[in-house]
Amino acid sequence: MLAHEFIATRLAGALGLPVVSGEVVTLPDRNGTAWASLQVDAIEPTFPPTNPAELASIFPEVTAGIEVFDLWLGNTTRTEHNILFSPDVGAWVVGHEGCFADLDGETPAEEPSGFLPPPDPRCPHVKKWCARVQFFPSDTIEHIMQTAFSLRLLNAQTRNAYKKYLLNRRDRIQELVNTASPYGEVEANQPTLNFVGADE
Description:
Helices cover 41% and strands 9% of the residues.
């Protein structure tokens, strides 16, 4: 779904999570639009399927960010094929069609995909990403939703529903992490953090 790709890519970038950039484009040979992202082939022709244990071992901070981000956006379809991973270079998230499960925004944390382990709320990296989500600016969410509306990816009703969903789960991110985790609960973090895309 174009709206999911657009919204998730913009949110991930503003949050500071490595993400492959993309844009909604008009197809030249037929009536319609599509999602076009940068082709990443400088490292090797294709990325092999991501090994979650290797990813977590080499890039634990990024792994924690993906886990928390997927909980925020209700993404239950993360697989080895929508994380581009090179042990020598980095990791980037792609493929966000499965976000926004149970769009009412009031449901408990969804079952994770099982590809990545559930986030451990005791982990410093998880705490950092939870704080980033908690303090994510409402104005940035509003701007992304309005841009999606202007591009006709959402109508007014769905724009408001997506905004409500994101704000609700942003404010409940520690609860969502605690609920999804088998490691126990921790209190919500309160530090002030600066991050890419934050409004002053």
